[in-house]
Amino acid sequence: MKKGSIIRYFPGNNTPDGYFSYFESILPWKRAQRIIIIKGGPGVGKSTMIRKITKELVDRGLNIELLHCTADSNSLDGLIIKDYSIAVVDGTAPHMIDPKFPGCVDEIVNLGDYWNEAELYKQKERIFLLQEKVKHLYARVYNYLKAAKIIFNNLEQAYSTLANRRLIEAKTEEIIEDVFKGVKRRDKISLQRRMFASGITPEGSIHFLDELFDKVSKRFILVGNPGTGKSAVLKKIEELGTSKGLDMDIFYCPMNPQKIEHLLIKDLDIGFITSVRPHMILNTRENDVFIDMNSVLDCSRLKDIEEDISQDSLLAWSLFDKAVKTLIQVKQTRDELEGIYSSNMNFQVAEKVGEQILAKILSYI
């Protein structure tokens, strides 16, 4: 039997405004066949369970979407079998998820039923201290990101003053003509899923662009400095795709979770990728269409602001790197916290629970 495929993305992210989640946009509740929400503290085996279930399903030829965690990019927050509208998700903080349609759509599996409560109680004070430390460290992370965003905004404004709006509009119209010529409106409402292709994690800025867009037939790759209109182009395309009833996966920017960074028009098998630092696509193809948005800049005026741009760029990325280094401290603290819980967890029983979840999924399929 041919194995199924895996794609990966982040359902939520560390942002300048704290943790931001698109969890509920990924698999619309009313369209779902089954959503299994796993509860339990850190270190109780949620990610391991999701990984084991994924392997069994992929071996059976099922295509899986894996939801990665920004607290640790190697850890998993969930899996989705999109062809069958089935999901298994981690419903604990910071992405608190509770049933909306208990029994008929969603259900809770609580791994907290299988830990040694008496032993955990003995370490209550240590758990309190570690959780408080995590809380304060995250506050620092978000402050560093907020400060970095302010400086990145300076860069965007600086380049924006050099951008020719008419050239941006002309380039946008050219792309729209290329993509939507002859495309009629579908007799349905556009289904839009929202998520992140990249994440700000203890491992740095991690992205899954290469595998997310690997099998897309036609790809437009946007490059260029901030403030040159890349997100404006994508916003126009998203609006037109919506008006034509086209299904889309929309990927947002962790530094501004309202700003579109990448776009996949599933009904047309066309993708748009913003390839800039820190998420540069590696595997380009001969038929990729590259769009250099720096072509809209009046470079003759660039010398006047070159020094400001250089200083702001160094400062912004320094603050970004400081946020990542602080996330490493968060992970180290969380690892200690997970160690307390995992040493007081009955994993043999938890593993059987995972087997039951797998059997239930297969029964629905």
Report on this structure.
The protein is an alpha/beta fold and 365 residues long. Helices cover 41% and strands 24% of the residues. The protein has nine helices and 16 strands. It has helices spanning 23-26, 46-59, 117-122, 124-160, 165-180, 209-212, 230-243, 306-342, 347-364, and strands at 6-9, 12-15, 18-21, 34-39, 64-69, 72-81, 86-90, 106-110, 192-195, 198-201, 204-207, 218-223, 248-253, 256-265, 270-274, 289-292. Strands 1-5-6-7-4-8 form a six-stranded mixed sheet, covered by helices on one side. The chain has a six-stranded mixed sheet with strand order 9-13-14-15-12-16. Strands 2-3 form a two-stranded antiparallel ribbon. A hairpin with a 2-residue loop joins strand 10 and strand 11 (204-207). Helix 2 packs across helix 9 (347-364). The longest helix has 37 residues, at 124-160. The model has no long low-confidence stretch (mean pLDDT 93).
Rg: 22 Å
Helix residue percentage:
40-55%
Would you tell me the structural class of the helices and strands? alpha/beta
The tally of helices reads 9
pLDDT averaged residue by residue: 93
Low-confidence stretches: none
Strand content: 15-25%
End-to-end Cα distance: 17 Å
Profile the largest sheet. Answer: 6 strands, mixed
User: Got a strand count?
Assistant: 16
Strand order of the largest sheet: 1-5-6-7-4-8
- Sketch the topology as an H/E string, one letter per element: EEEHEHEEEEHHHEEEHEHEEEEHH
Coarse shape: globular
